[in-house]
Amino acid sequence: MRLAMVIDLDKCTACQACTIACCVENNLPKGIERTRVYPVGPRGKYPNISMQLIPIGCMQCDNPPCVKVCPVKATYKREDGIVVQDNKKCMGCKYCMTACPYEARSFNKYKPFTAEYDKLPEFINPDVDLRPRNTIDKCNFCQHRIDKGIYEPACIRACASNARYLGDLNDPNSEVNKLITGKHARPLLPEKNTKPKVFYVWDK
Amino acid sequence: MKRRTFLKTTAVAGAFAAAGIGSASPVLKNLIKTEALAGPSQTEEWKHSFCTGCVGWCPLRVRVVNGKAVRIEGNPHSLVNDGKACVRSHLVLQQLYDPDRIKGPMKRTNPEKGKGIDPKFVPVSWDEALDTVAGKMKELRNKEQAHKVVLNRGRYNTLDVHLLYDKFCKVYGTPNNISHSAICAEATKQGRWMADGVFDYVGCDYEKINYIICFGNSPLEAHRPTTRLVNVFGKIRDRANRVKIVVVDPRFSVTAAKADKWIPINPGTDGALACAMAHIILTEGLWDKEFVGDFNSTELQFITGKTIPETITDETGEEIPAFTENYTYGLLKWWNTYLKNAAPAWAAKITGIPEEDIYKLAKEFAATRPAYAWSGRGTAMRPNGSYCTNAVYVLNGLVGSIDTDGGIIYPSGSSYAPDPFPEVMDDIADKCRKQPRIDYRRSKQFPNAGVVTGRLPESILKEDPYKVEMILAYFNNFNFSCPNTAPWHEALKKVPFIVHITPMLTEFTEFADIILPTPVHLEKWNYTHPVKSGKYAETYISTPVVERLYDTKQTSEITIELARRIGGSVAESFAGIQSLEQYMKIRLGEMQSWDDWMKKGIHVRAPYKIGSVRAKGFSTPTGKFEFYSETLKKLLSERDVTEADLKNIKIDATGDLVYVPHFEEPKYLGASEKYPLVLISYKAALSTEGRSGNNPWAQDRYLVMYGAGNTTFAELNPETAAKYGIRDGDMVKVSSDYGEVVCPAKVFEGIHPGIIAMVYGQGHWSYGRFARGIGVNPNDLKGTDYDYLSGSTSYYNTRVKVERV
Lengths: 204, 805
Hints:
Chain A is of the alpha+beta class. Chain A is built from 6 helices and 9 strands; from the N terminus they run βαββαββαββααβαβ. Chain A has helices spanning 17-26, 65-69, 95-99, 143-146, 154-158, 175-182, and strands at 3-8, 36-45, 48-56, 75-77, 83-85, 106-107, 136-137, 164-168, 198-201.
């Protein structure tokens, strides 16, 4: 199995439910976003302008440069193709951050929620460990859900316009493969040869 | 936004190349909906509640682990929302566990009131708080001054409407239940009502629409109900015949970014564009013959500037109508009174949109059916916003998008079982209820207003028609959310006794004498139903998802407590209610069994049968869809409104023009020589009607278009910025006749050169730790004005100037 994601930008409404649902699900500290909607543009001059709003996160590369540079093997690719981060091993050297062409990795400066709240808030998800500070954070397709057989990361569950899809690239009948062929979903920066597994359907 | 610079160079150019696709493997079991994530040491439940982020009140299922709410999802039974819940629903967790919630009842100890003056609140017992409030209310009532108690409500739910807003106010004896509705979008209802007689939010069969024009609204950010609109956007973009969306707005909104075309328009001129489009649809012969009808002679056609006779003579010499209308009324009157001269060249000068673009838009709209001309607050919430809305709305009539697949539809609402406990009216209640209302709704000034929220400061300060002795308010923050905040502060200062029922300390609470804290929605028993938006009418309940965190009482519990303590007929009216759960069972019982309510949290009625209104006739005096509004004519005559009265409420039209869709010159507050720019405020998706200020998840990414949060920008077109020597990021002072604010400038190509755009929701000087002192409030700059017909507050007609500081 090679898990991949398709984000249909023509259906995406830039509402940021993916970002916030991810923060909720993964107990993310302030300032850390595993997926974030980036404004790109505007292109052109008033009144003929266009703008893209693109959710970006880890591209789950088949050929992940972050894995190659990690001196302690804290990041690695699983059999199902998800690039995961083991923060028990991570020493926060940030090599992986530099190596990632998508700048999809973040450095945790804070313990979760301590930057904003007096004490740990009560909405902590018990399924996910609190992220240790001074380590690296990244999207893992909600591996804790996938490991329990729920092939639906929090961002997909929360996406009200159903613009995100998860599926198996090795299965020609999977929804993701249908979108790659039918709607010409393409990855960002394919020329970097990292073989990313997040594909975008371009709007319009 | 410091990182991911690679996007700037690559993604914009659409630099996508083919990717390798792997070979076959076993089929993945995708999208497994059921979850059993909790380990053995945890208790896990999913419970029902609903959101209060907008009038969608979307039904939610809440994951509760070990008694804590940890995750929000949409209710899978909802057909309105397709089982989804929008971004605002997740903020509920940070609202529930907000560290700055009010934790128990309090009273004021500092008699001096004002902005920035510490009220010196101290905790009191519920008994003391409720006795104080009930004592005051009883005292006023005994003096036959029940009408001098004003009730205010903000975001509501049906349970509180039933018990407090309606029943309690009635039996207590105050006619002054003044809601927030006039700061919501009443002018949009009014504009549509003038054509179809329905004063309500309309449903729309969005799923089948092929062409949408959004006038002055950004449905992906702030319209209603948010979840349904976002969800349906995904569906209609995904269809083989992908919907085309055009946004007409002086600001390049998120919806504009996601649309196929953005057409910036001079503010307040939507009516002119709509009339020119109607002109083109008629002159080009593109109207819907089935809905509107047709000429009775092939020789007749709509020609610019030419009057059409109402009757013609047929070959037998008999006089027949020139045009026979089917489901509509008054087309020729409209044409002859006004539309014949509303040519695109005329509209181009007013709107700033090139003539050929108007042509193209009108033709595309009429040719790509079903098409929907959709207007929102930008069109409506300004003087004569009713007329602007009406002009846009009747375009739907012209192209037949009324009560048809892919058009406007008229679904039913929820029907609750009657309240079995009778309202007992004593003499005092009868007498006080007959006193005039202080907001002058349904007067000559506000002929069709259901409520005039914005009139309160004037009424209170001038004691017009009498002195307000007390305000009882719940879940509102009018001196923050209404334009012209300064007189609001003054008015609240003047009111001798204010009680605020609220979960959070707000700017309004700062003027309160007693605070009665409420739980937030996940802690409540509750029921409600969403605004009309599609075929389905749903009703939702909320059960206490978690135990109450603090010493709080629900608004409805407070209502019952107050009634008991006031005693007499008031207490008698509520005597039968043992608990909210019991009352809910009675009111909801006819829809489905209580077990079903507990199991599903929702009731879905059979869908609206499209075409039923066409079949039975519209709710207008003519029974038709009116291009000449007999509906409005009847109302104005009932209210005895003369042409001189119309002048007083800023309507320029006279004669028949009053009753047909037409363009009224925008009316501004502030002289253009002194204040060259128009202030246009807007709501971000995450503003949650202004209640997300203390939610870091919302604050940190409030302005998605700018990748920014925790701030308010003065958004300017580069040309405008250059004119005033302003660069991106400069601190600027924006001022008007009503106030001034200082904030950073954002120079952006997506802003009309004649406006300053500012997001609503920041600028709290009260509220919680994450909100206070962040950004500025555009309402501080705005003056008080109205769409007088509907009593709606104007939000977009204040002129401002900007300078670097």
